[in-house]
Amino acid sequence: MSFGGGHTAEARHSTFETELSAAVGGRPLRMHVGLGPNTDSALITIAFAHPDITDDLIAAARRAFVTESVVADIASEVSRMPEEQAATPGASL
Fold first, then answer.
1. d(CA 7, CA 16)
2. Is the Cβ–Cβ distance between 75 and 1 less than 8 Å?
């Protein structure tokens, strides 16, 4: 996984909220800021929909962000495990 960028969950959340605010407000988005590809895509969709942004578009962006954040957090945990533990099925759960 290349997204997450080694940032903390709090930093990713702050970045997401900043980019969501930009998309909703019609301001330019920053790319390659550590958000996942589905989150980026959802934010771009919102930006293109401006000013006709629906609650569903915002909810979809939030779902994408949460899903990709969980994946990034799990990948980060696995990368910090000893190699033999990381190779054990279910070790990260």
1. 12
2. yes
How far is it, in rounded angstroms, from Cα 87 to Cα 64? 27
| Phi and psi angles of residue 74, each rounded to the nearest 5 degrees, phi first | -65, -45
For each of the chain's 93 residues, which pLDDT tens digit applies? 345 555 788 999 999 999 999 999 999 999 899 999 999 999 999 999 999 999 999 999 999 999 999 887 776 676 676 766 656 666 555
- Single-letter code of the amino acid located at 16: F
The pTM (predicted TM-score) of the whole model is: 0.76
Contact yes or no for 42/64 (Cβ under 8 A): yes
